[in-house]
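Re: the request from the purification team.
They wanted to know what the chain is likely to look like in 3D before they choose a buffer screen. I agreed to run a prediction and write the result into the notebook, where they can find it.
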Amino acid sequence: MGKTLDDIRKQAETLGVPKTGPYYPYIDGDLIAKLLAAYGLVATVWKESKDFKDLPDVAIAMVDYDADWEVGRCVVFHRMRSADEKTAQPYCVDSSAGKPAATTDLAGLTPSWYIGVTQMQKTAAK
């Protein structure tokens, strides 16, 4: 996609998210879908999950979910497939330490909810 986090934040501000937090009253599934659509992507609704095997190849996954508070930490999940489709390497990009970092060690990360992400279909020219 080639966009920086600052680019995404500026786009979110055009959709009503304030420049400084708290952000939780604003960031919901609808806002995430609008943000992704602005970059040619389609989001599903939030869906329950118990394992990364349940997720599509690209998703925003909520881990460390607290059911009482209905909050969790979101990571970007990607299942990178080989050109021949025979092997796949799942990994997550997690920014919980303040700087996004990719990890293939998914032990200890259990997705409770996810939003699937796909590319928008281009309309056929007339």
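For the purification team: The first strand starts at residue 41 and ends at 43.
Please add any questions underneath this entry.
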